[in-house]
């Protein structure tokens, strides 16, 4: 038995007339009659009593009509749900992010645009450093990552979409720090001070190399942190100078001050996803961000 048989039967049962039911279904009357007869053979008995003027339902036909309507409605709903999922209208998108993506406003803008178009789709957020986002997207615990191109590690099998151009960097430091007297700082100025950077311990050397060779000079300590507030806390406590995206400057914390870092530019903001993504909601979310990057990530 196919859904087509049930649709034909319900049309005849509701119209009480083969001719009108055939017009409603846009099929010939002979085709309709053949399909209803096939259904009757399937159930093993008559469902309709045919007269010269109208069609009446047998007791079995009355019972089947109720269940057939429910079956067709459920099938239509299932099809609708599948279509909604493919189009990104329902489902779940798990997003990882670095603080800079929020402070620059790009993640907020993308989430807002997506939610306006797909209010039934659930979005979840997890703050993670770049390399951890790469790992989570690859192993399937996250769907999308927003992070700067800094300390990414191995990105094979992932799509990188540029979301924003390179952003300037700042140095966050305690207000009474010796370097706070300058209006701007170079990487060389930071060479002998304790440094705070966004990285895991394994990524430390990679991030320092990307900032510039001066950051590899001997120093007493490098603090590696995985979040913006942690970096600012170390800096405000006088335990190091933190290299942060300039957008962090809008965070006003006690005892903290910011100075421009005279480096050519900071890292650009990327959206990370799987290259073979099949999820409709995730693909729909990605359509609100950048285009897939045609070139590989920068070598470090």
TrEMBL record:
HTH lysR-type domain mapped to chain residues: 1-58
Annotated GO molecular function terms are: DNA binding; DNA-binding transcription factor activity
Alphabetical keyword list: DNA-binding, Transcription, Transcription regulation
Q: Which domain of life is it from?
A: Bacteria
Q: Which InterPro entries match?
A: LysR_HTH_N (IPR000847), LysR_subst-bd (IPR005119), WH-like_DNA-bd_sf (IPR036388), WH_DNA-bd_sf (IPR036390)
One GO CC term of this entry? Answer: protein-DNA complex
Family that this chain belongs to? Belongs to the LysR transcriptional regulatory family.
Protein name in UniProt: LysR family transcriptional regulator
Species name? Actinomadura rayongensis
Q: What's the source species' lineage?
A: Bacteria, Bacillati, Actinomycetota, Actinomycetes, Streptosporangiales
């Amino acid at each position: 038995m196919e859904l087509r048989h049930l649709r034909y039967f319900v049309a005849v049962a509701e119209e009480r007339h083969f001719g009108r039911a055939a017009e409603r279904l846009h099929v010939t009357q002979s085709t309709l009659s053949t399909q209803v007869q096939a259904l009757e053979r399937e159930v093993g008995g008559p469902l309709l009593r045919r007269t010269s003027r109208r069609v009446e339902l047998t007791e079995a036909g009355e019972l089947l009509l109720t269940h057939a309507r429910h079956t067709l409605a459920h099938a239509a709903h299932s099809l609708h749900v599948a279509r909604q999922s493919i189009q990104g209208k329902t489902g779940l998108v798990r997003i990882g992010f670095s603080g800079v993506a929020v402070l620059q406003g790009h993640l907020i803008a993308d989430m807002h645009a997506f939610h306006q178009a797909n209010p039934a789709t659930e979005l979840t957020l997890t703050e993670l450093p770049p390399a951890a986002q790469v790992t989570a997207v690859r192993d399937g615990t996250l769907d999308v990552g927003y992070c700067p191109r800094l300390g990414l590690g191995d990105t094979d099998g992932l799509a990188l979409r540029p979301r924003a151009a390179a952003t300037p960097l700042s140095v966050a430091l305690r207000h009474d720090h010796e370097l706070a007297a300058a209006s701007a700082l170079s990487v060389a100025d930071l060479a002998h001070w304790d440094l705070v950077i966004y990285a895991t311990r394994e990524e430390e050397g990679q991030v320092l190399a990307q900032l510039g060779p001066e950051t590899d000079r001997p120093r007493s300590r490098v603090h590696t942190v995985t979040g913006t507030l942690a970096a600012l806390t170390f800096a405000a406590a006088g335990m190091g100078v933190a290299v942060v995206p300039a957008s962090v400057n809008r965070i006003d914390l006690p005892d903290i001050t910011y100075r421009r870092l005279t480096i050519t530019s900071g890292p650009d903001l990327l959206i990370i996803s799987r290259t073979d993504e099949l999820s409709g909601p995730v693909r729909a979310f990605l359509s609100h961000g950048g285009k897939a990057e045609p070139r590989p990530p920068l070598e470090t």
